[in-house]
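#onboarding

Welcome to the new folks! Below is a worked example of what a typical request in this channel looks like: someone posts a single protein sequence, and someone else replies with the predicted structure as tokens. Don't worry about understanding the tokens yet, we'll cover that in week two.

Example request:
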Amino acid sequence: RMQPGAGENLRRARGAPVRGRGHMGGAGKYIEMDRLDKVVNMEEGSRSIHKERAEMLGGAIDTAQADKAHARLKRMAAFDSHDYDPADNDLEEDARRARKRADYKAEEQWRWAMSVLIGVVMGFLAFTVDGLIKKFNGWKYGATTSSISPGGAGFGAWLIWVIFSCLLAAVAGGLVSYVEPLAAGSGIPELKTYLNGVHLRGLLRIKTLAAKLGGIAFSIGSGLIAGKEGPFVHGGGLVGGGLSAFGSHTLGFRTKKPSHFRNDADKRDFVAIGTAVGVAVAFGAPIGGMLFTVEEGASFHSTGMLWRGFLATCTGVLTTHWLDQLDFDAMDFAGAKFGVHRDFGLFTDDEANYSRVFWWYFWEVPIFAAIGCMGGLLGAAFVNINVRITMWRQRFIPVSDKYRRHAEVVFVCFVTATLLFIMMAGSPCKPIPEAYRTAAAMDTDGNGVSDELPGGVATFEYGVETRRQIRDQYFRSLFCKEDEYSSYGQLFFVPLADSLKLLLHLGEVYEQNGTDEFEQHLFTMDALIMYFVFMYALMTWTYGIGAPTGLFVPSLAVGAAGGQIVGRIVRAMVMSTGSEIVVDLHTYAVVGAAACLGGATRMTISITVLVMETTGSMQLIIPLMLTIFFAKAIGDKYSMGIYDTHIKIRGAPFLDEPEHAGVAVDKLKVAEVMADSLVTL
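Example response:
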């Protein structure tokens, strides 16, 4: 709360007579710091140390600093807090004494049942959203591709592409602007603030759930540089908080029995469990999802919450696997292999043979550390640039201006779609790799030659079945001739998540060629560089618009491209020495992806496990840990993580960990930050 006298300080800072604090080197006017101003000023000073002048408790601050401090206090006044302390009064004591053993047993059973139910519901919602995204992408890419002809002008294809993209973006932006503004962005800063104890009105409403999960399907379908993990985190928190309440304010009902968990502390735990399930079903990573909540989401931990979240994430991922298999082939449900698919994989584990795909050498350890440092610098630059863009948005495209905010979403989508189409249309054409080109020729000769994959594999259980189909899906001609493929279109003219999969895994099947020979698929360097630059810029611009958008997949895609670039440089240097050592480009892509995500979010353990679970790169656990450590260490020197930064921009009174609270903890007493007069009833 703003202390008595804070308004007086602000008036003095704006031109009223100012009381001096003594002579300090001939400087001009000074104002006396209020006690809360001292804390704010010291917090800011601890994050950006000014070496040219000493920080002095009780020293004078200038007008700009005073305005900034009081503006922050004013923003904080708009928030309320949750009551996580147990009620302790005579009525509560009598109620607890009247409870029977069966009541405690029933409550515990409902805790576990709610955890399972949260996982099942989020599994169904994730399957539905993924299905919508596939439908939207199928319609958009199908209609555009059918209008493309080799050597054609391409205007008609561009028009179809842009119309589809902008219509889907208009729906995503409309759900935010006209239905629920809190559905914008990833939702992770808001959920993190809520779990810290700050109440955000409307954050857990049913219409917020509909706008968030419905909007992310349209956002990704439109081609915006966005991922689904952040909205799924928000959606999971909504499901967890809603189901555990046994009622709904929006729908106007409340069950008499069961009536458990109607206090802030229990609701907080179920919201935290829901966020873990959201990450788990978004990536098919149950352990990584739980670690995400422990590391980044929840401010209050307990062993019971951890175990129930463990069960919930397992149930959620299991539900999505069941539904995916039923949708793929319900008749072969009993004989289908589970556990061999990766969310960011092109092929199943046994087909890709990950034990032969990922490896590293001891001399590459410093290179991985350097990649981590670059990821930290890129993440810090992303945060600082995005902050400037966000400030510009707050000034010219405020949340209160629905029409302008909606128009920005459509405009960003228009620019993104046009840029991606230009890159595809202007792409140089490259010969299709020999293995696929030979297979295609044998198929069309009519000689009856088998169209098997290397190693004698005739068909795949999931996805593409033959190398001719691999060629048609991943080496499309588009504006090129039949025996060529679009080298830029391979990365730019596919959904963002698919381009990430290609950067990480393309070529895994035919690289071994069924023999001891090894030849990796090489993306063209110009395609990798332009993909890295454009996606980084679009990601920075897109994050924060008035539509549901996530950050994980864009960061991973940018980092994977950067990792491929570094890998190609290392590969060229090794080859220049005449060495026969084979540098694994897949390893560099995975390490680069983790470095970029770690640099942007500053998470460590959860990212390591998430990347391993989603890419199958168990062999890279040490390089991943080392890379992410350096990404966080370097990034923290220049900025906070993107989620903590947006919490600060919002002005929420977020309570940091004690070691992150700054020097004020050591230099101030409680009495110095308390109001002088009591507020009484």
